[in-house]
Amino acid sequence: MNAFILLLCEAPFCCQFVEFANTVAEKVDRLRSWQKAVFYCGMAVVPIVISLTLTTLLGNAIAFATGVLYGLSALGKKGDAISYARIQQQKQQADEEKLTDTLEGEL
């Protein structure tokens, strides 16, 4: 059942003879990445909670992995160290300027 739902949501062209496949795919496409992540991970965890066996774990691993990938995409791109250091340096310079302005104002 989970595999059919995952296939229906992610690859509706494989279910082209199912009448409601395109409407389901359109509704899923409107969801945000974090919502898809919660849906797919929740969809994978429910059978594991019901029956914890090796086949259940292996069978739901792909749905869980899909949820993890959507979750990572919801977090966004990680910035590189150079741009992070530049932002920190700009913040530090702004703080130093504020400090010197307040010290000059007191004198």
TrEMBL record:
GO terms for biological process: vesicle-mediated transport. The chain crosses the membrane at residues 44-72. GO terms for cellular component: endomembrane system; membrane. Keywords: Membrane, Transmembrane, Transmembrane helix. The keyword Transmembrane applies. Pfam families: Cg6151-P. It is a multi-pass membrane protein. The keyword Membrane applies. It is found in: Endomembrane system. PANTHER family: CALCIUM CHANNEL FLOWER HOMOLOG (PTHR13314:SF2). Belongs to the calcium channel flower family. This is Calcium channel flower domain containing 1.
